Every structure is written in C-alpha cells, then in structure tokens.
C-alpha cells in the first residue's frame, strides 16, 4: 500500500474522536464528536487497556498514538494504537539509567518529525544532572543528544508543528517569567525557548499548553470573567494571535478560571471544555454560550485526549506498529 494512502480518503478528513481514560480501571471509551454533536455516541470499549498494570502511565500522545511508561529499573515503554486495538510497539529498554527510578525527575514525549518523516521518543532527566536521550521508532536503541533543556520542565508535553513543548518549572527559583515555554525541534534535535504573548498572570499554573489545529496554543485562565486562547500562527517568526476570548465566569467567587480545561476544537467552530474533570461543555463563540454535554458513565478520575482520524491513519502506515501482547 502506498505510504499515507489512508489519509487521502476525503471522508476521513474531518473525523474527530474523544478518548476518555478511566484511570481506575484503565478502560477507554471512544466517542464520536461529529455525527451526534452535543451528545457523543459511545462507539466501543477499548478493553485491552484494562489488562495494563496500574503502574503504567499515559505520558504522551501524537497523531492519535498513545505513549505509556511503567516506571522502574528498567522502565517498560510502549506505544499503543487505540484505533486498531491490539496494535502496539514496544521500545527497547534503556541500559544506562539512574540508580533509582525518579518518575517526577524524568519526562518522556512522543513526536513526529515532518522533515525526516520519523517518529521519535525523547527522554529528559534532571537528576543528578540534565540529560536528554532520543529513540527513533524503527531503530533498536537509545542515544544521547548534546542539546539539553535550558530550564527544568514540568507537566505533560504538547506536540505541535514538528516540535514538542513543555512549560518551564518555576519551582527551581527562577524569578523571571520572560521565558515560560521550552520546546524541542524533532528534526534538528535541539531544545530552545519559545516566546509567549502577554498573559494575565505570572503564575505558570494558570496557563495550559495545547495543540490547536496543528499549532501550539496557550490557554490563559488568569481571569475570573473569561478564558483566552492564544495560537501561534507564524511558527517561523513566533507570532501569537489571540484566537478566542470565551466569556466564562469563575465558579463560587474564584479569582480565576483554573477549574476549567480547554480540550480541543469541537463540531462546527465550537470549543470543547471540561469543568473539574467530570463535566463537559461545548462553547460556541458565535453565540457566546456554553452547552452542557452529557457523557454516559463518566468517572471523576479521567484524562482526556483527542485525535483526528486522518492523522491517526497516517501514522499507522508510517509507524510500523505490531500486535500487542500483555503478560
């Protein structure tokens, strides 16, 4: 089959899905968000995830592929394809690791390099000193890279426009908020600082990094009257544009809107949000109104991931995934 031929099907171009992970049981439900807008239809249960040990952590995702880690010495790492249950790729173990696994001192991320057409996994450790390693899918080993992050990073990575992005960890004593984002170019294999727009607060916990239609975006929850979404429209010149200002009032007299989470574009120009991780809303910028969305059997302990089927099918052909066996 010709490479990327799946993605040429125009009927798949706008299909969007929402994955809800019930962390207590590692069962995933997949919801369609285009055919039945406002009331997502349960398509299937991806029950293979219930076989995973509770020690597995969903660390990253890219083009619909899910990246799991089980921390220990050695660490077990694999990539799972939820669109084709049972299809995965196990990564080689790292032979030169720190003496003790330190989950909160290590960061993993999965991304795709458009320039080389390769999927790569990045591992960053800041204990006892900064170290960065990379694995290219299809190879048999990890390798050290010279470039290291200019500042400590924290939180989940965001893949957008050929790079991985993290927020800077300000708990290490940095007094300046001039730089708040660390990025990694997957083609050049280099870390760099990404500029940001003027935001409402210097508290990094009041912003989220998300992928927005292929671009890096910042969600600013600093205000109690609205939520701003900034999108980097020009990746070369690092030009930020405030794409949306959602008129959302903070609950119960809160000083900010940090209880909300912006997940993804939704339906016909709408925005999907969650509140306190167990309520979903569709926000329509044209009417400036949110609409409650009922999701059946929703648990509080979930994490939300979104994927475009077109991107997912493209990565199936390029990634070379194989059947998954879980012991």
From TrEMBL:
What is a single Pfam family found in this protein's UniProt entry?
Answer: FBA_3
Which parts of the sequence belong to the F-box associated beta-propeller type domain?
55-302
Q: Which NCBIfam families match?
A: F_box_assoc_1
| Protein name as annotated | F-box associated domain
The species this protein was found in: Macleaya cordata (Five-seeded plume-poppy)
């Amino acid at each position: 089959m010709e490479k990327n031929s799946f993605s040429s099907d125009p009927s798949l171009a706008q299909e969007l899905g929402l994955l809800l992970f019930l962390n207590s049981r590692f069962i995933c439900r997949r919801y369609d968000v285009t055919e039945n807008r406002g009331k997502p239809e349960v398509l299937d249960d991806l029950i293979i995830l219930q076989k995973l040990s509770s020690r597995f952590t969903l660390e990253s995702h890219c083009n619909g592929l899910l990246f799991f880690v089980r921390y220990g010495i050695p660490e077990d790492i694999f990539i799972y394809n939820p669109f084709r249950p049972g299809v995965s790729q196990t990564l080689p173990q790292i032979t030169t690791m720190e003496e003790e696994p330190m989950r909160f001192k290590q960061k993993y991320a999965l991304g795709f390099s458009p320039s080389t057409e390769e999927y790569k996994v990045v591992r960053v450790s800041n204990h006892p000193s900064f170290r960065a390693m990379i694995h290219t899918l299809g190879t048999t080993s990890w390798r050290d890279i010279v470039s290291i992050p200019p500042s400590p990073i924290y939180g989940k990575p965001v893949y957008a426009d050929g790079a991985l992005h993290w927020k800077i960890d300000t708990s290490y004593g940095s007094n300046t908020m001039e730089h708040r984002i660390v990025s990694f170019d997957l083609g050049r294999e280099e870390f760099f600082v990404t500029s940001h727009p003027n935001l409402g607060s210097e508290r990094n916990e009041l912003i989220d990094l998300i992928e927005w239609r292929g671009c890096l975006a910042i969600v600013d929850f600093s205000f109690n009257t609205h939520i701003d979404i900034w999108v980097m429209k020009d990746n070369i010149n690092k030009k930020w544009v405030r794409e949306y200002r959602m008129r959302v009032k903070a609950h119960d007299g809160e000083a900010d809107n940090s209880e909300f989470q912006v997940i993804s574009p939704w339906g016909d120009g709408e925005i999907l949000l969650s509140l306190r991780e167990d309520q979903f809303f569709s926000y329509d910028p044209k009417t400036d109104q949110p609409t409650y969305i009922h999701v059946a059997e929703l648990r509080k302990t979930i994490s939300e991931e979104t994927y475009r089927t077109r991107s997912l099918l493209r990565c199936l052909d390029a990634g070379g995934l194989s059947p998954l066996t879980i012991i």
